[in-house]
Each structure stands twice: as C-alpha cells, then as structure tokens.
Amino acid sequence: MALDKSINVLIVDDYRTMLRIIRNLLKQLEFDNVDEATDGQEALSKLRAGNFGLVISDWNMAPMTGLDLLKEVRADQRLRNLPFIMITAESKTENVIAAKAAGVSNYIVKPFNAETLREKIEKVLVHA
Amino acid sequence: MPDGGIAPEDDRIEAVVRQILVSMTGDLTAKEAVLLAELTALGRTVARVKSEIAALQVDDITGSHIPSATDELDAIVENTAKATNEILDACELLEQLQGSLPAEPAQRMQDAVTRIYEACSFQDITGQRISKVVGALKAIEARVDAVTGAANGRVAAAQASAPAPAVGPALTQGQALANGPQLPGAGVSQEEIDRLLASFD
User: Fold this and answer.
1) Cys staple from A37: which of A42, B53, B112, B200, with CB 3.0 to 4.6 Å?
2) What dotted CATH number matches A9-126?
3) B 159-188 residues inside an 8 A Cβ radius of A
C-alpha cells in the first residue's frame, strides 16, 4: 500500500537544530509539507488550526511536554486518531509505558537513524 | 535556649549539652562523669567544625566557581549548536548539488548526507546532558550556601527573611517523567522499546 506523502506533518522539538535535522530527513523520505513547533502548547494550537496527518514530537519540552501534548491530542474529538510518533531521549521503560497508555502510535529513542524513522512512519501511516 | 529565643538548628546540640551540664548537681557517679566528658568533647567538636566551615572560602564557590562553570557549559551548548548548524548548511548545499550528479554518485552522496544528519543529532543529546549538569551544579550551590549559612549562624535570620517557598502547580505526568538522556545501560534500546510496544498489541 502506497503511502500518502502529501500529508502535512508537524514536528515538535525545543531544539531548533533537531527540528532542522528531522525536517531534512523527512524531505529525503519525500515528505515535503512539514511544519514546526517548539513546545506542546504551540503544537496544539497549530494542530487545532490546521489539517495534519502526522505528528512527530519530542518529550522533554516546556511548558507543555510531548506526553502532555499527546494526551491533549487523544482527548480532542477531531484529533484523537491522529498518528503520533514520540522521538525522545527518554529511554526508561516507565516512559514508554506511559506513552503507550496515553495512546502513542510509535516511539523512537534518540539518537536514532533515518531507517528507524522511515520504518516507524510507514508503520503508523499504514495502520492509520 | 540562648537568649530565650529559637536557637538556630546547628546551635541546638550545644544548647542541649549546656542544659545537661547545668542539670548535673551534686556528686557525679562514674557513669555521669563519663557522660560529662563525652558531652564536653562533643561540644568542642561542634564548635570546631562550625569554625572550620565558617572559615572555608565558600563565597568563591557560590559567587565565582559555580556561575563560571554554568556559563562555560552554556557556551559549550551555544558553540556546538552553531557548529552543527554550519554542518547542516553544508549538507543542504550538497543535497542541492545532488541533482547535477549521475544516479549512482548522487545516491552515495545522499547516503553520506543522511549519516551526517544522524550524527548531528548528538547536539540535542549533549544539550540535554549539559542541562542536567547545570541543574546539579545549582543544587550544590544551594546546599553549600545553606551549610555555610548555618555555620555562620545566619540560619535564623535567613529563615526569618526568606519568603515562603512558592507553591507552584503540581507536575504533570509528562514533566514528572522527563529525566533526559540516560547513561549507557540505564535506559532501554530501540529494539527493547519495539518489543515492549508489540507486547501491548
């Protein structure tokens, strides 16, 4: 099944360098419609105002973390089924379990490689 | 208690020793004599430790060393971010040139650029680790200040003048679980995460 790479993707990270790296990796994967946010609150505003097909979010951000953003997304009637991938340095089992309980679609631990990113995106979009 | 007021925390031992000594009247038993000797020694030790702590040049630590160390760490984050962005500038230029190359070398160039992007994500991990170190330094600074303040008898005054700790909103689950990068072996790998997630399906 071919992936729709024309979807709008929102990447969320408080490190602008990381946003730039993920954006460039997505471009290599032919996802050209990419928007950015630097914390959960800004991301939530953009998600509610726009039409996104995928969120790729860091965890450790202020004031709203990626986990809190995920919970807001899953509590929102319009956004609740939006594919949501967490990319984070948080690598404790308790973090993964909390993210899964909150409804994360997939979880990538930093540092990651492009192949892992491609694999997880394909997996969540195919099952979306 | 001295002066009939509330004694600072570190003066309580001395006050207790003094009260016990005053309460001892009449002939001392052998046990009481031993206790008296131990209490006297304890009082001297407390006084010596207090004067030693008070004599430490701790103002250098809180006023100079720790702020300087945190500034240096901030500069590391800033410089690595700048260097990483320059590397990314060069990578983006290479990707623009890719279209002018034959397919095989173009693919090899893209593979190389991808590896550079992957490697550049070190800056994020480094930044988060340094933030944890800065947090630890600030905690040490606060503890050193508290210990030396106590040794200088500034505790009561500090407690009287210090504003009550701000009671902020409770941490969200996301904030409470945000620990940053783990040391090798302390966190789970991508493969373990994949297995864990699959176990929920």
Assistant:
1) A42
2) 3.40.50.2300
3) 172-175, 177-182, 186-188
